């Protein structure tokens, strides 16, 4: 099966992982993985448990370091050894646990660890007005609906909490957002809110990597799917060129993938 891009000529992706490998002792978790995402593109990272999805995300987000391979930003090789390195390069990760503090309000969560002060000296009061203003602007930009930026996060719905975690990435100027199972454990209405948010991030020009087991939802929002199987790329395909049945075949190994490299060659 052949695959083709929606554009006649591919531009240099914002994030490119080339020939990424990772070994944990005797276990080869990733072998020669190529993965990329461009700005304004939603890419699904798909695979069964143990396929290597989490390991690849950890490498991109700076919590693990690759054994081999190159990560490039806009074609320029970079080194990502810590989450701070990833953030500095415009990569933010929203994990399933969201890393939110329920006892703090939305503004405090958005600025957690990056609080603004009017002067650079110990004991200076926080710039509450500035932080609240910036928070409201970001929430409005991506159409996140909450009662107030001063609402306690613990009082928000699951979908709203997920949106706040994503909004934090937008606030800090991320270019790539890695979303790990963003609709897991949410109700139907809340899942819809999160999927709509993914599309709005795309419209804002962010690249989005969506890690999910829900193929129905994946096909609603993504442009392209990358399937990992046993630490290798089993397929790299444009959504319109495949069906959910095809993807299941790549995940299980029932279907071989000439499309695994066809995307890059198109």
Provide an overview of this structure.
The chain is of the alpha/beta class. It is built from 9 helices and 10 strands. The strands form 2 sheets. A 6-stranded mixed sheet has the order 6-7-8-3-9-10, with helices on both faces. A 4-stranded antiparallel sheet has the order 2-1-4-5, with helices on one face. Strand 1 and strand 2 form a beta hairpin. It is globular, with a radius of gyration of 19 Å. The N terminus is likely disordered.
What is this entry, summarized?
With 266 residues, the protein is α/β, with parallel strands linked by helices. The protein is 33% helix and 23% strand.
Topology at a glance:
Elements: E1 15-24, E2 27-37, E3 42-46, H1 53-61, E4 68-73, E5 76-78, H2 83-88, E6 91-94, H3 106-110, H4 128-141, H5 158-171, E7 176-180, H6 188-203, E8 207-211, H7 215-221, E9 224-229, E10 232-238, H8 244-252, H9 259-265
Helix pairs in contact: 4-5, 5-6
Fraction in helix: 25-40%
- The secondary-structure element order is EEEHEEHEHHHEHEHEEHH
In whole angstroms, the N-to-C terminal distance is 13 Å
Q: How many DSSP helices?
A: 9
Q: What kind of sheet is the major sheet?
A: 6 strands, mixed
Query: Taking strands numbered 1, 2, ... along the chain, how are they ordered across the largest sheet?
Result: 6-7-8-3-9-10
State the total count of DSSP E strands. 10
What structural category do the secondary elements indicate? alpha/beta
Q: Report the radius of gyration as a whole number of Å.
A: 19 Å
Low-confidence segments, given as residue ranges, are: 1-9, 258-262
């Amino acid at each position: 099966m052949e695959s083709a891009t929606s554009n006649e000529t591919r531009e240099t992706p914002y994030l490119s992982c080339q020939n990424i490998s990772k070994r944990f002792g005797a276990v080869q978790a990733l072998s020669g993985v190529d993965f990329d995402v461009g700005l304004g593109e939603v890419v699904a990272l798909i695979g069964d448990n143990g396929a290597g999805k989490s390991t690849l995300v950890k490498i991109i987000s700076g919590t693990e370091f690759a054994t081999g391979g190159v990560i490039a930003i806009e074609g320029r090789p970079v080194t990502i050894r810590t989450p701070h390195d990833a953030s500095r390069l415009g990569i933010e990760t929203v994990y399933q646990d969201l890393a939110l503090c329920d006892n703090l309000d939305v503004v405090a969560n958005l600025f957690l660890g990056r609080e603004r002060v009017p002067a650079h000296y110990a004991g200076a009061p926080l710039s509450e007005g500035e932080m609240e203003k910036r928070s409201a602007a970001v929430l409005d930009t991506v159409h996140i609906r909450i009662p107030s930026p001063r609402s306690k996060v613990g009082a928000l719905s699951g979908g709203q909490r997920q949106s706040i975690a994503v909004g934090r990435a937008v606030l800090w100027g991320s270019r790539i957002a890695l979303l790990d199972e963003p609709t897991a454990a949410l109700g139907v209405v809340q899942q819809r809110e999160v999927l709509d948010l993914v599309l709005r991030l795309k419209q804002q020009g962010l690249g989005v990597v969506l890690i999910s087991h829900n193929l129905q939802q994946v096909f609603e929002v993504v442009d392209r799917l990358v399937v990992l199987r046993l630490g290798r790329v089993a397929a790299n395909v444009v959504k319109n060129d495949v069906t959910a049945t095809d993807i299941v075949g790549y995940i299980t190994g029932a279907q071989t993938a000439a499309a695994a490299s066809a995307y890059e060659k198109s």
